[in-house]
Design brief:
This protein has eight helices and eight strands. By secondary structure, the protein is α/β, with parallel strands linked by helices. Strands 1-8-7-6-5-4-3-2 form an eight-stranded parallel sheet. The structure holds D-xylitol-5-phosphate and zinc ion.
Amino acid sequence: MSTYRIAPSILSADFARLGEEVRHVVAAGADIIHFDVMDNHYVPNLTIGPLVCEAIRPHVQVPIDVHLMVKPVDRIIPDFAKAGANIISFHPEASEHIDRTLQLIRDHGCKAGLVFNPATPLHSLEHVMDKLDLILIMSVNPGFGGQSFIPEALKKIAKVREMIDASGREIMLEVDGGIKAENIAAVARAGADTFVAGSAIFGKPDYKAVIDAMRSQLAAV
Ligand code: DX5
Ligand code: ZN
C-alpha cells in the first residue's frame, strides 16, 4: 500500500500573502508544496520564479515541488536548486536533451521528474526510468488552475503505475489538474500516490476541511 501525499498548488493561493498561505496549508496537512512555473511561451500564462521559491522556503519544512512549464528548461534549474527546491520536473517537449536535463537536476541535489500533458505519449520514459524520482501526469492542459479533470488521464496513470512497478524503483506518481475530494479516490485507484490540488484547496475557506475530506476518501481506497 502506498503512502499518499497531498500537494497543494500555490497557483490558486493569495500571492499577496504567500508566506502565510504556505504556512497555513502545511498546518492544514499538506505534505508537499506544488510550485507552478509558467513562462508565457511554453504555456500561455506567466507566474513565479526562483525569487518567489526562495522567499517561501523559510516558511515551510515540507518539500517544494517545482513544476516547470518553461522552454528552454536547463538555464533555470540551478537557480531553483539554489532557491531551495527539492523536486524539479519538466515537460519532455521543452528539453532538447531529456537525459541531460534529468542529470542536471540530480547534479544540483534535487529529485527529478518528467511531466506528461494529456496528449503527450509516454515513450520518452522508456530509456530514463533509472534517472526519475517522479512522474507527473497532467489531467488538464497546463497553463491555468481551475480546469476540469480529463478522465482519459486515468488510463495513462494506470499504465505508468505498471511501468513503475515493473522498474522496481521508488518513483512517485503524481497527478495534476482538476483534483478534488470527489475524484481523488478514482485517481488513487488508477495508481497515483501524490495529488496536486490548487483551486480545490486554496479556493476554499477551510483548507484543513478539504485536506481531511481528501484523506478520508483516500483511506477508503
Ligand atoms: C496547471 C498547473 C496545476 C494547477 C492545478 O497548469 O500545473 O498545478 O495549479 O490547479 P487545479 O487543482 O485548480 O486544477
Ligand atoms: Zn502543476
